[in-house]
Structures are given as C-alpha cells and as structure tokens.
From TrEMBL:
Pfam families: DUF179
Gene Ontology cellular-component annotations: cytosol
PANTHER family membership: UNCHARACTERIZED PROTEIN YQGE (PTHR30327), UPF0301 PROTEIN YQGE (PTHR30327:SF1)
Family as reported in the entry's similarity comment: Belongs to the UPF0301 (AlgH) family.
Domain of life: Bacteria
Name of this protein: UPF0301 protein GGR44_000264
InterPro entries with a match to the protein in the record: AlgH-like
Amino acid sequence: MDQPIYYAGQLLLAMPGIGDERFERSVIALCIHDEGGALGINLGEEIEGLSLEALMSSFGLEAPQARDIPVLRGGPVEPQRGFVLHSLDWGGQDLVHVADGWGLSGSLDILKAIAEGRGPSRYLVALGYAGWSPGQLEEELHGDGWFLIPGDFDRMAGLLAENRRNAAFAACGIDPAHLVAGTGSA
C-alpha cells in the first residue's frame, strides 16, 4: 500500500478562478498536514486597520514596537483565534514544527514574549486559519484551484503581504499575470 504524502511546510497558491472568493489570491502556509487533515495560515492578506500593537493591547499587553506590524487574515475558520508563524529561536508549550527553522504557536505566551522583547526574531501574526478535513486537501489538489510549491518562509516573511503571491509564483518561474481560470482544449 502506498504511503500517504503530506505537505506541511509547503505553500499553497490560489489559482485564478479557484471558485471560492475567500481564497482568491491566497498564499497558504501549510502548517499541519497529516491523517487528521490540514491547517494553513494565509500569508497574503492583511486585516485592514489592525496592527499587532492594537491586537496586543486587547490582551493588556503594551507593545509600541508593534505599531506598524500588520495582522494577517489567516483564514475563514475561527477568525478570532490567533496564530504566530515564527522562527524557532523561541519555543513555547504549544509549538508545532512547520518547516526548517519555522514553527506555529497559538498561545498567549508568544505574544507576551514579543511584547517583552524576548520573542522570536521573525514572525507573522494571523487571526483565523484555513482548515481541511481528512482527505479534503488531497482531493482539492487534484483539481485546478491550488498550485503547491516548496515553502520559503524566510522569503515570505521579508515581503509585504500583497507581494507574497507574485513573489512565490516568480520563484517558480511563473508570471502570475499569464495565468487564467479554467483549462482549454486543442
């Protein structure tokens, strides 16, 4: 029997015409993918008007250094739940290893550490996530809605959210301006 293939640590790029407006132009960091399903964080869309400083303030944390750090719209599932995709120079109780040098945390401990200046050196903060039940992502990958590429989280973290999708496609030699929805016939 064939062993299942899992894609944690990869990036899912939404193709034109994905058919779900919630994912148009998404850049999903697949953080968990196993027999139980998949969980990803959208790195390609900021929540307008919400900074990390304001989010931390809602927890009673002071972090003026986070004034200009955007919070990402991680996905449509549990949009009030926070996640931090971060470098592994910080580790907490609920850390999930995602890829070489990167992990995912969802506890308040990491926000406290960031506010106190002892958190990870690189991080992206998101509210919500994209989730797939067992076998659902594998089924979707057989369609034409997603393009799967190796995850270069270091590169993604260094870019503005609105530039991540084009940069990810460009890293594969693809100009996203030439992509069209649907398939043709000859």
